[in-house]
Amino acid sequence: MTLVKIFPGKGTQGLAEKIAHAYDYPLGAITSQKFSDGEIHVSYNESIRGCEVFLIQSTAPPAENILELLLMIDAARRASAKYVTVVVPYFGYARQDRKDKARVSIAAKLIANLLSAAGADRLMTMDLHAGQIQGFFDIPVDHLDASAIFVPYLKSKNLKNLVFASPDVGGSARARSYAKFFNADIVICDKQRKRANEIASMQVIGDVEGKNVVLVDDMIDTAGTISKAADLIKEKGAASVRAFCAHGILSGKAYETIESSVLEEVVITDSIPQKHQHEKIKVLSVDELFAKAIRRVHSHESISELFI
Questions:
Q1: Closest to 244 (Cα-Cα) out of 159, 305, 304
Q2: Which CATH number among 3.30.360.10, 3.30.9.10, 3.30.70.3400, 3.40.50.2020 corresponds to the domain 4-145+287-306?
Q3: How confident is the model over 235-272, as pLDDT tens digits?
Q4: Active site includes 191?
Q5: Are 63 and 111 in contact (CB under 8 A)?
Q6: Which one of 24, 40, 50, 111 has the minimum C-beta count within 10 Å?
Q7: Which of 5, 18, 191, 228 is catalytic?
Q8: What is the pLDDT of residues 217-232, one digit of tens each?
Q9: pTM
């Protein structure tokens, strides 16, 4: 069988180490450095000829993370790797997946094109902002689901009278997928935006009186939407409100917003490295999930069996 080698990008070094440990195989030796002017240079410090190579790098800002990943792919191809899989726990720029107004870029499609053009044979990612982004790729996409981590954790809380909520209409399918594991109902927070990261109005559709409400979303950025939704749900008589979001971007004043909100707990994964710790924020690791997926890709087994 083809030898597996796993290499980290600088932006996801810590998670890559945990994935390699869960896979029970050491990370490969790679050097990523900058010239004096900031130009990135990538080189592999061991032979990868004929190997199945997995490159781990989330494409969260800064944009250097994307460029470094592209250089890693190109270097692997030129070093005669047999197969190159890019493992992108958080696929950045996924929010720009359509033309929602005139004269804008569809950045998610552009990133997909860049990864394919650089020479990637396969993409492995988790909780895309929109599932149809998989269709932007002409290579296989393994789309993992954070519910495989979140659902067992939530079950361990032994909460009664659960209701699942989506912070917007577009996320109703995600909320429903969680609700089925608990035979629970869902509610929807219908929001209207003035502009990106700024909400004009929001209303709750559904009954939350006396319920323990779980907001589910793919990401939490400034925490404005999730906090406003939590406040409204609490005003409607909910017993408690907590949030489960796969990707903790947590930019701007997100930590302060979460601190001042009624949210009892915000559960995220380590798909994006966290700059700070916070008593309300619980970080669950995706290392085991991705290690199992890598193993199944290598042995040509089903990925869907990983999902609950």
A1: 159
A2: 3.40.50.2020
A3: 999 999 999 999 999 999 999 999 999 999 999 999 99
A4: yes
A5: no
A6: 24
A7: 191
A8: 999 999 998 999 999 9
A9: 0.93
